[in-house]
Amino acid sequence: MSALSDLSLRWKIPLRVMGAVLGTALAVTGALVAREYEEIRQNLEGHARSMGRVLAHTLIMPVLHDDIWRAYEILQSAHERDPAAPELQAEVVLVTDADFRVFVSTRPREFPIGSSAASRGGAYGLLRAELSRGTQTEQRVLEPVDSPVYFVMSPLIADGVALGHVILGYSKTPFLPRFLGLVGRAALVTLVVLAVILPISWFWSRRTGQPLLRLAEAMRHVPVELEAAHLADLPHSRDEIGQLGSAFRRMVGELRNKQELERQMLVSERLAAIGRLTAGIAHEINNPLAGMLTAINTYKRHGGDDPLAAKTLSLLERGLTQIRNTVAALLVESRVEDRPFAPQDIDDLLILVEAEAHACGTKVVIDGMLGAPLPLPATLVRQIILNLLLNAVAAAGNGGIVRLHAHTTDDSLTLAVFNDGRHIPAEELPYLFEPFTTHSGKGHGLGLWIVYQIVQQLDGEISVDSAPDSTTFTIEVPYGSASRSPAAALSD
Amino acid sequence: MDRVNRSPGSQSRRRFLRCAALLAALAPLPAGASDETLRIGLTPVFLDDQMSFLREWQRWLEAKLGRAVVFIQRGNYREIVDLVRSGKLDFAWVCGYPYVRHQRELKLVAVPLWQGRPQYRSYIIVPADDTRSASITDLRGKVFAYSDPDSNSGFLYPRYLLATHKEDPGNFFGRTFFTWAHRKVVEAVGVALADGGAVDGYVWETLAELRPELTRATRIVERSPLLGYPPFVARADIPPAELERFRAVLLGMAADPVGEELLRRLRLDGFTRASPELFAEIAHMAARVERL
Predict the structure, then answer these.
(1) A63, A69, A76, A77: best to mutate for the B interface, most B CBs within 10 A
(2) With contacts defined as CB-CB under 8 Å, which chain B residues touch A66?
(3) Which CATH number do you get for residue B199?
(4) What is the pLDDT of residues B251-283, one digit of tens each?
(5) Chain centroid to CA A278: how far?
(6) ipTM value for the complex
């Protein structure tokens, strides 16, 4: 049973439809055959009754005149075989007198004149019990139990007196071949109809099941292969399956959004953790570092003239200064006091980048100009743009193009830096903004980390869209009422 | 329309009505029969149900006699015999038994020759599957089929036979019935509707050739001695010239090519003159039976 219910809809729907079609065909055929059977039966009985009436009427005179031969001839002509309808032919016709003794019969050897109609035994023996029952002046159909023959008994009535009876005996067996023929024909017609309907209904039921199957197939990809599930060919109709399909598409879309969100959260959380760790370490390094540098300074100013010591301290000072620079680079802090970012800053940046661009053979284009200074810390924004431009120039390489697009709204600045150079592989994107991540092999890998830190501090958002020959870093930084940063501290 | 024209009109109507009344009186006879038509009655002393043969015989007779001929058939011998006795038929082919009974009212015309003789036999037959009965006396209490109460071979002879066995023909059989034709006696006995029957030997032998399946279902248990063959008779008041003319046609039938062919189909050899003595045996039997 469970095996049946486990069967795929691919088979279940067609099989059920087939079953319904077969069942209908059988029911209709059965009903038709039953009706036909009843009709044949009725026809037969009607024919037998009218034959009985005609014979009874015709035989009155021969019986009255004791004309056996005339009666026999009448029976013979009534008994003539009709090849088209053999079941209409009575097996035997008996004419009996009032005492149910044979006056004449179509089979004189079996029913000799003067013998009892029931003397032959068998069905005719059963007939004896039926003969005397009921009214003698009415036509009766006698069907003795277990008899292979049934009888139509018509009284010979002259002036209200029953002279005798005409008994037509019909065998039930000739009826059978005709009935079987009927069943055979009905079965043939049913088969022909089925031969036409079954393939059509198979095809249609397969078609009906197809969207469900596709849906189930798409479901199997959830949640591991959302992309495959998303691309599945689902029905777009407005029926329930179509609704299911669109609901499924919605679900997959939301799942994808959720996964994307989770991934982004993971990245930003990791970056935040790295940031906190880096800041902590930087602070811990900075404190003794400042002390050490101050000590070296003090020694240089007030210490002896030992050239070896001076050389060693100078070496220490350079190393410590490098550490301080590196730590300072890690520790991006919004400077509380800064001037607003002005349109001229972009021109400055272009000049700053141009030397590098020239060296690489890259063309740098600036799109869109700022109309007025923005309430954003100029140093930080300049740092972002400079880092991104330098990265882009490095990526674009010889003959490449770098484009900076700056755009402002009432409460935000959008910066987009485009280059047509080497793109960033998808698998590297999650780690792009981590410190000491370098893709070009050059630099210390802190550029994007710094950009990220600054954007985070400015409550902005950064996104990367990288495809072959087209990589764009987009940064949106809010200001004014949309900004949570202490922009109010800015001074002109 | 004036009176002069009306008078002949009403006269012709009166004549028409008279004719119609005459026709109504003749209703049992064919309406087309006129005074010139020769009316010949036929009985089932031969196989009278061969309509195509009768038509050809009628045409032949018309050609030979030079006048219209009508065959008249009835359900039994008596009607034909009565019609010829009352002069409503000119000639009739009847059985020897009614001939001897009404000899004074009938004129003997000619007697057919069968197997070279103007004589035939009566056969007592039983169903072929009755292998025991050897004589009519074995059929006591059984069902017996006669052909016609005015038939010699199909009624008189078996009754005479029983009388010679000191049996009462009226009570000997359990049940008897008439088939009104010899051929049907053969059929009735063949299907065992009757346990025995009496039949014209000529009819039985002819049937044995034409419809052997009918006679094969029967078995002959007794044959009568030779008896006078059913004759052609004429009404008593037949003009002698007419009788002679008809007799000449019958007697010349065997010499005529078409007539011979017709006789061949009847399985007869021809016709012969005969004297009433030919039927003496039948008359004797009739007297014997009627005494009972």
Answers:
(1) A69
(2) 177
(3) 3.40.190.10
(4) 999 999 999 999 999 999 999 999 999 999 999
(5) 51
(6) 0.78
